User: What shape does this take?
Amino acid sequence: MTKPLLELKDVVLKVNRHTPEEITILNHLNLTVNEGDFITLLGSNGAGKSTLFNAIGGDLTIDSGQILLKGKDISHESVEKRTRFLARVFQDPKLGTAPRMNVAENLLLAERRGQRRRLVPRRLNKQLDRYQKITATMHNGLDQRLTTATGNLSGGQRQALSFLMATLKRPEILLLDEHTAALDPQTSQDLMHLTNQRVQEERLTCLMITHHLEDALTYGNRLIVLHHGQVTFDVSGKEKAALTTEKLYSFFADIE
Amino acid sequence: MSLIVSSIGQGLLWAVLGVGLFLTFRILDFADMTVEGTFPLGAATAVMAISQGMNPLLATLLAFAVGALAGLITGLLYTKGHIPILLAGILVMTACYSVNLRIMGRANVSLLGKNTLFKNHFLASLPQYFDSVILGTIVMVIITTIVIYFLQTDLGQGFIATGDNQTMARSLGINTDNMKIMGLMVSNGLIAFGGALVAQNNGFADVNMGIGIIVIALASIIIGEVAFGDLTLNQRLVAVTLGSILYRFVLLIVLKLGFQANDLNLISAIILAICMMLPVFKNLLNFKHLLKRGLDTND
Assistant: This one.
């Protein structure tokens, strides 16, 4: 039984409003994300993929339409409020972690995502054993570097940490914005495997932007293509399983 | 000997400024010019309150509150008004000048014959200059402990994260605007508190006593960092106080070399500039070293 978790209804988002350079990025976009969906999101540059994420996250306010979470209108909630149900991983490894704070401190910050920060002791030492076990699941030496400032980690370790931080406190929706794109092929593949494993295990609802057609086909139960700010292609289940890169290429050739 | 004790005492009293500025300059990672206005603001508030018969301790705490209020205004201009932080600070600093004149009614007000934090039986019974050493130590132990405790709370961690990576902080639900406002309030509160202490120690408040304050506060931070190298955050906070004392020693030496008190702002600026350029100099030296080595091996 699938229930709609997140609904975007007739969403319009413009930039440079009221100037001659006004551009409509999301153009009456409709999308329903069901609970447990793992959606891979494709689209050429400028199609509106990142803008869609920023609209869901609240960094950009929509001009018209509605964004509903479990039927509740969240179109005008602040970024801070939306973090109660939403977690994100950015493409740039630098954006996901605090460089001067160590790995354990970053994890603790992430575990309090969406909560009020109170004037109570953080009690980091009590968490260290648990964090050790959690980071060990990444198999990249992160568990040996809990007290290392994240600015001194490799890009791959930082991005793995960012992903871990996003899922440490279970989000209702996880947004991955090309989170493996800045990494070398092997590290990228490792993180992609881990991502898939974690999303399956925790039955997370996840949207993942990617430029890798193969990744888009391999992972997830649903594939969506954005074009000119609209959903132009949306397949799931067996239909998606039957897709091939050739079919996708020819589809892209058609819409251009 | 008494000059050294005096330097230590001054260093301890002025260290409050270093810790206050540390919160914005090192943790939030921007330079807040407001402090040049909040230092004399704190002095003026405390001196006038004491003149009206208020208990010196209460007057000093009142100075903190008034300084925090000025910090609040800078914070609102910066976060809600989208005025760049440097300009927001300069605006409030400039406004403070007029406010300080309003508070004091004239440019300079003396505390002659009035009660101050330094005029209790115990401090008065100590040898000369030891009063500021004792009071400064007590104040710095209390303030440093409170700041260290605060930074280890959930709120403090959110505050550090805001300065470290704003995008991440926001994506974790930390209200970064509020964190910046809070930082500016506490920072300017501490600077005004320092102004109140210094005014009571000097025996007067002057409307021009804020000039160069940011350089003095930065000097204690930077000298502490240069002198003690790699430290944890908590150790760095303690290093600020030691840096403030070292800075007073440097000034003492400079005065002994025959410079006048009027030259101190110039000298402070030069000392700070040199300390801040040390990493560049180090790189230059390393570069030469490498170059030489390269030539040697080729020979």
